[in-house]
Amino acid sequence: MSEQAGETYRAGSVAHRVPDLGAMELLLAVARLGSLGGAARELGITQPAASSRIRSMERQLGVALVDRSPRGSRLTDAGALVTDWARRVVEAAEAFDAGAQALRVRRDSRLRVAASMTIAEYLLPGWLLALRAQRPDTAVSLHAGNSAAVAERLLADEADLGFVEGLTVPTGLDSVVIAHDNLIVVAAPGHAWSRRRRPLDGAELAATPLILREKGSGTRQVLDAALGGLARPLIELSSTTAVKAAAVSGAGPAVLSELAVGEELSMRRLVGIPLSGVSLARDLRAVWPTGHRPVGPARDLLSLTRG
Amino acid sequence: MSEQAGETYRAGSVAHRVPDLGAMELLLAVARLGSLGGAARELGITQPAASSRIRSMERQLGVALVDRSPRGSRLTDAGALVTDWARRVVEAAEAFDAGAQALRVRRDSRLRVAASMTIAEYLLPGWLLALRAQRPDTAVSLHAGNSAAVAERLLADEADLGFVEGLTVPTGLDSVVIAHDNLIVVAAPGHAWSRRRRPLDGAELAATPLILREKGSGTRQVLDAALGGLARPLIELSSTTAVKAAAVSGAGPAVLSELAVGEELSMRRLVGIPLSGVSLARDLRAVWPTGHRPVGPARDLLSLTRG
DNA sequence: GCTCGCTCATAAGGTCAGTTTATGTCGCCA
DNA sequence: TGGCGACATAAACTGACCTTATGAGCGAGC
């Protein structure tokens, strides 16, 4: 195979083909401030460091990103596009950071949260980021588990606020609905169902072996209830990610939260199969011990999660 | 201010608080393969390197991520959560990479794409990633510009396939609708409109000064047409990002593509204002010179962008 | 008109994270 | 009991990134 630099795509770690997070962050600062030196000051590095870093990013990407002039720097057209893409990477990294900080076990936590897996995975990092923007001094700790575990932690006073996604609210807890979630049927683009014209009905769904989460998971509970306990598993897997991977690889149709498959749907790695006559909607709820209305930081977080 | 390690959040570059992309990628490989050594082999590094890198990631995050045993490594509960968050960062980086590769000017491009800004920003990286998965040898080049520029490049045979988002199809081009986009009215959560009970109507919208893209942009065209050329600018800004930033900071209400504000809405940095009686829908179209139906790589990409 | 102040570029040296090679320990299995 | 696979530890190497120091272009004000 020919080895001309970067001719066509070659598989391998993406980390060696993209600038690191620090460089992307620097680029965002340059875009915002219109100056390499200014961006350097904001990030606490020197101007030559910023200059060299942007230059090596341009060399790596093979594209000029900023127009330098003696009175400032502006993004080129390509630079503007790259900056927008970089912003999405940095935002994902910020969500990672917000989540990871909450996982650290700390005695000084001011707000202890317990959440179901789906919520912890997809929604909480964003909420924590918003909370941090409002109240930077609130140290949050997070524990993820199923509904029963969330209830247990709340009742044992090991958590101040919980989030669950089941059909029922565990006893001993008060709750408020904060969002709605729909389970959807998905299949790989090559699957026969992806070319159906007629929506699927409940009987067909119940008759077909599906890739599912294990019995006892929130997702499975909702599906079993909607089908009258009849869902037939093709495979049972213990994480949303594993189910997605199996469905993408074409192992069969799967039922998943729409929160989990947004990306896959928009990139056509999976297609949603319309369903009629069966409602796979479920409520996402914030929960707390009966009578103990959230106050302080818990109340702040709760108010962020609702409109 | 006290300096206990990592007690509460302190502003500063996120890059120093999160593992780098290589470490996240390594973690994903460990999760998938169930072994540090296996992950190391996949990424082309040695086992001690992988071991040390995972260890330093655990030290940085203050959380155990993998359970090591003499016969493999499995993620801890916290590790599974961290891995899910890391996956989103890596996916954003892959989209960045796919886009950036297309920006490089190459003589050997097999597919030359011209796209409007909004599409290039939000949709194309995903399509390019999907195309790469299907046809790894297709070298793509990308040029972003407004509708007129896209048409010009196609007609001058400088591009094989274009994507536009205006109301009308430039003359000389055939087109097919590939998706729909809605403009929505957004405001910061504190804005008076965010507490409205009644939907906004066209007259109110036309009477209120708005944060807008400059005249001539696709977004502005749609809005002006819907309101009968009456949109009143509060400020005119030349990029979607700038408009978003102004709206988030509370400068006033803005009108933006729903593609551009998904993240901001779900994190409540902006709220959508319901609108009645005015349709701000627009079609996203693939375009090509009349008569020259896309073939080869252009056809592959086109078929990815439709259901 | 000259100098100050802002911008970015270049050069030389230091530091540290991440890497490799080499070796040790643990548990399982034939 | 020896062999194999997986992970840990130690020591030395490498390179990316940083800093300090200095140079050069452009514009504004005295």
Summary keywords:
homodimer; 307 residues; alpha/beta; seven-stranded mixed sheet; two-stranded antiparallel sheet; 12 helices; 13 strands; disordered N terminus; DNA-binding
Uncertain ranges of chain A? 1-7
Task: Give me the count of strands of chain A.
Answer: 13
How helix-rich are the residues of chain A, as a percent range?
40-55%
Class by helix and strand content of chain A? alpha/beta
Anisotropy-based shape of chain A: flat
Quote the average pLDDT of chain A. Answer: 90
Distance from N terminus to C terminus of chain A (CA atoms, Å) equals: 55 Å
Assembly classification: homodimer
Give me the Rg of chain A, rounded.
24 Å
Q: Please report which band the strand proportion of chain A falls in: under 5%, 5-15%, 15-25%, 25-35%, 35-45% or over 45%.
A: 15-25%
Q: What characterizes the major β-sheet of chain A? A: 7 strands, mixed
Q: Helix tally of chain A?
A: 12
Element order of chain A: H for helix, E for strand:
HHHEEHEHHEHEEEHEHEHEHEEEH
Pair with the biggest interface: A-B, 75 and 76 residues
Model description:
Two copies of one chain form a homodimer. Chain A is an alpha/beta fold. Chain A has helices at 21-33, 36-43, 47-61, 77-103, 117-122, 124-134, 147-155, 202-207, 218-227, 240-248, 258-266, 297-305, and strands at residues 66-69, 72-75, 111-115, 140-144, 161-164, 173-187, 200-201, 210-213, 233-237, 254-257, 271-273, 275-276, 281-289. In chain A, the strands form four sheets. In chain A, strands 3, 4, 5, 6, 10, 11 and 13 form a seven-stranded mixed β-sheet that branches. A two-stranded antiparallel ribbon of chain A has the order 1-2. In chain A, helix 2 (36-43) crosses helix 3 (47-61). The longest helix of chain A is centred in the N-terminal third of the chain and has 27 residues, at 77-103. The model of chain A is unreliable at 1-7 (pLDDT under 50). Chains A and B meet through helix 1, helix 4, helix 5 and helix 6 of A and helix 1, helix 4, helix 5 and helix 6 of B.
